[in-house]
Amino acid sequence: MPEARALTRRPTARPRIARPRTACGHDRGVAIISALWATALIAVISVSVLQLTLSDARVVRGSDKAAQLQAAADGAINVGILSLLGSAATQPPVTGTPFTIDLAGTEIRMSVIDESGKIDLNFATPETLQNLLAGAGLSTGEAQDMTARIVDWRSGAADGTSQAGDPASYAGAGLDYLPRHAPFQSVAELRLLVGMSDSLYAAVAPLLTVYSQIAWIDPAFADKRVLQAFAVSDATARAALQQREEVEQGIAPPPKSPGVAVGHAFTITAEAVDRQAKARATRTAVVRLTGDPRSPVVIYRWE
Questions:
Q1: For 117, which DSSP code?
Q2: Contact between residue 280 and residue 129 where contact means Cβ atoms under 8 Å apart
Q3: For residue range 190-230, what is the model confidence (pLDDT) as tens digits?
Q4: pLDDT of residue 50
Q5: Mean pLDDT, to the nearest integer, of 263-292?
Q6: Which residue from 93, 98, 89 is spatially nearest to 255, judged by alpha carbons?
Q7: Which among 24, 45, 69, 246 could disulfide-bond with 281, CB atoms 3.0 to 4.6 Å apart, if both were Cys?
Q8: What does the mean pLDDT of the chain come to?
Q9: What is the rounded CA–CA span in Å between residue 285 and residue 267?
Q10: Is pLDDT of 112 > 90?
Q11: What is residue 273's DSSP assignment?
């Protein structure tokens, strides 16, 4: 028998298992980028919140400043009323001449106007209104039509008919209202009339009032254009207008400033100014001096 050979078994090689490649480096990069984005987002949000906070703070400071100026303007109106009630030496000019006072460290620009120098919308004659409108640039026919609308608006005869002397009805103008057929509550109500343009209103509104409650005007307080509206038919107005023109030409000296008249209504305007903050607030009041010690002042408007 052949000699048996010893068989030696080679150890089989252990299979290599392919392990997945580690992604540690890539993951760390993604994590860093994500963290940067998150930090940037937080920064943006923080800046936005800070801006909103600063903006709110400015609004609050601005509101406080506005409130302070409004309070100062209201205080100045009260000072103006007391001055009207005071002695002649302390009374302010009542012809609209501006003046300045200091109230608790706030600069106040003020003016006081006697309403008797204006044409009262509810008491003026049609002739006076027509003259005023013609002086503002309307033709004779246009002035007549607008005067008819004013008179119709303030008249108490509300019979549902179209406006007398008005060729264009409110419905025809696309408006959904009719004349009040009652006294004007304010000069601004003129804007509701058919045909009342912005330019015409701007020209006549400063010369009109609803507070004098008289058909006449006091020439001492009247604007030159108001005197012209009355001068057509009134000798006193013509004389006052001539005197006004002589003063303007330097022929005559300025008349003595008229004083405060008890029974008259006055418009007082006060504008509080803060130059550093570039802010201002304005208050306007219309009051009447009654002459009654128990109730010396009637307040018509305060805004």
A1: G
A2: no
A3: 999 999 999 999 999 999 999 999 999 999 999 999 999 99
A4: 46
A5: 93
A6: 93
A7: 69
A8: 82
A9: 6
A10: yes
A11: E
Of 270, 277, 302, give the one whose Cα is nearest residue 63: 277
164 against 42, higher pLDDT: 42
Helix (H/G/I), strand (E/B), else coil: 196: coil
Give all strands (DSSP E) within 156-264, no chain letters. 208-209
CB atoms near residue 66 (< 10 Å): 16
pLDDT number for residue 178 = 85
By DSSP bridging, strand 119-120 and strand 265-274 are unpaired
What is the distance between the alpha carbons of residues 34 and 22, in angstroms, rounded to a whole number? 20
Identify the H or E element spanning 242.
Answer: helix 235-248
pTM, entire model: 0.73
Higher pLDDT, 23 or 273: 273
Q: At 271, list the tokens.
A: 């504008």
Phi and psi for 106 in degrees, rounded to 5?
-110, 130
> Which of left, alpha, beta for 141 (phi over 0: left; psi -120 to 50: alpha)?
alpha
The alpha carbon of 53 is separated from its chain's Cα centroid by a whole number of angstroms, namely 30
The alpha-carbon radius of gyration of the chain (Å, integer) is 40
Among the listed residues 18, 34, 77, 39, the one whose alpha carbon sits nearest the alpha carbon of residue 272: 77
Q: Distance (Å, rounded) from C-alpha 219 to C-alpha 116?
A: 9
In the DSSP assignment, the letter for residue 91 is: P
